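Bug report (template v2)

What were you trying to do?
Predict the complex of my protein with adenosine-5-diphosphoribose.

What happened?
Run completed; filing so the output is reviewed.

Input:
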Amino acid sequence: MWPSVIEEAAKRIQASSWAVALTGAGISVESGIPDFRSPGGLWSKYDPMEYGDIRSFRANPGKVWRMLIDMEHMLIDAAPNAAHYALATLEREGFLKGVITQNVDSLHQRAGSRHVVEFHGHGRSARCDWCGREVPREALKVQDVPPRCVCGGPMRPNFVFFGEDIPRAAYLQAMHMMERCDVLLVVGTSATVAPASHLPLMAKDRGAFVIEVNPNVTDLTSIHTNLHVPMPAGQALPAMVSALGLSLE
Ligand code: APR
């Protein structure tokens, strides 16, 4: 027997014709990567305006790179957890059209998800902030920060800083998915950072049923969420997969 919220979520997913997931840092917590805003998260150690904003990067790229290296150390040994595999299984079995993620850790792809929209970019490559030249992240030496391009410009990760636009292709794909989806599974996000935080509102306005998987309540829970599953993603999502009669990827 599953908790009734799991049964209900599984029923909604089964009955859906276009289900989509929106994920945030919480889905990777059980992979050992702290989220941003929980106690002990990255933003309790670093002031986001001082380290996460593009203006801060441009004013002092070396200082921001020291934070980025700290962040990368958290990601380096991380592997997908049961929640990532559960979403990959739902997609493989035809229950999920894709995942929009705010995460830059590539764990969805490593778990086998195929249609992943990286709303905030990714950490697999870096580019020059002046001329745009791209290099794979592993080709970048960071003994001296900031690492520099041959043109002299500071290299930057290929993810989005505060104050920057969402990559255009990712934005358009996410809009399309919000227009079409009839179930939105919101997993592990505080839904505090726009425009990602607007996606559940858009889906809801267009009639989608919003299932929120988060051990805590968020700004979405009482207003926009139709069904709150107050459990860690690594328990809740595999339970939904089992309740659908499937086994994990
Ligand atoms: N399972 C599900 N949810 C969890 C778990 C878990 N095991 N552990 C924590 N959470 C929830 C927390 O309760 C919180 O609501 O995950 C959420 C994480 O919220 P944030 O730390 O704010 O992360 P996120 O929503 O992804 O942040 C959005 O902010 O700084 C930027 O660019 C960064 O993409 C990031 C964006």
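What did the reviewer find?
The radius of gyration is 18 Å. Strands lie at 19-23, 98-101, 116-118, 121-128, 134-136, 155-159, 183-187, 209-213, 227-229.
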